[in-house]
Amino acid sequence: MSLFRNAVYHASAHYLRDLPPAIGIEIAFAGRSNAGKSSAINTLADHNRLAYVSKQPGRTQLINFFSLGDEKYLVDLPGYGYAKVPEALRNHWQQVLSAYLSERFSLHGLVLVMDARHPLQPLDWQMLNWFLPTGKPVHILLTKSDKLSKSESIKTLRAVQAELAKFANTCTVQLFSSLKKQGVDEADKIIGHWLNPMEDDIPDAVTQV
């Protein structure tokens, strides 16, 4: 069964005060605008419209919570890095995301989505710098890997692994394609362990940094 197949909308928040109570387990998805975050969520959920997909970057303007049952939640964070977003809104989300990622007690892991053709941009590093000090796990999806040749995708994967080598204890990386549905099983295993830590051992994935 797909990891988030039973996900249903739970709540949205624009301000930190609007967040639901910090109970249970939350897994957040973050990524630059147009990196393929919404498509990745929909692919993992086997659902065409769970997360809104648009050809216009910057459309996700709220923190959206989806309930998975048993006090477990998928959290879709606003895309970042879209140049046409007003500065005041950009500053607002910088403050909200920084606090959410660094302080949210119920946040157990971060899935960071990057376009495989443009990984580890400065704003991606900003997200990592906010979250990695918590010691909680990060899993990076290098999306749109179908846009690269096999040799190019492997080269990109290894380059990202090398840059993140010092975070080996908490960070994993994989190639992912929503179009080809490649990498779904691997993501399921890693994220599924976060949601159900007592059921399975951490997968011995070749993509461990």
Plain-language structure description:
With 209 residues, the protein is an alpha/beta fold. It has a single domain (8-195), classed as Rossmann fold. The chain is built from five helices and seven strands. It has helices at 37-45, 87-103, 122-131, 150-163, 184-195, and strands at 8-13, 25-31, 63-69, 72-76, 107-115, 138-143, 171-175. A seven-stranded mixed β-sheet has the order 1-3-4-2-5-6-7, with helices on both faces. β5, α3 (122-131) and β6 form a beta-alpha-beta unit. The protein starts with 7 loop residues before the first strand and ends in a 14-residue tail after the last helix. Mean pLDDT is 88; it is low at 53-59 and 202-209.
Write a concise synopsis of the structure shown.
With 209 residues, the protein is of the alpha/beta class. The chain is built from five helices and seven strands, in the order ββαββαβαβαβα. It has helices spanning 37-45, 87-103, 122-131, 150-163, 184-195, and strands at residues 8-13, 25-31, 63-69, 72-76, 107-115, 138-143, 171-175.
Keywords:
globular; disordered C terminus; 7-stranded mixed beta sheet; 209 residues; Rossmann fold
Overall average pLDDT = 88
N-to-C span: 27 Å
Sequence stretches where pLDDT stays below 50 over 5 or more residues: 53-59, 202-209
CATH architecture descriptor text: 3-Layer(aba) Sandwich
Largest sheet: 7 strands, mixed
Helix content: 25-40%
Strand order of the largest sheet: 1-3-4-2-5-6-7
Q: How would you sum up the global shape?
A: globular
- Structural classification: alpha/beta
What is the rounded Rg?
16 Å
Task: Identify the CATH class.
Answer: Alpha Beta
CATH superfamily: P-loop containing nucleotide triphosphate hydrolases
Percent strand equals: 15-25%
**Tally of distinct domains:** 1
Q: Order of helices and strands, N to C?
A: EEHEEHEHEHEH
Per DSSP E runs of 2 or more residues, the count of β-strands stands at 7
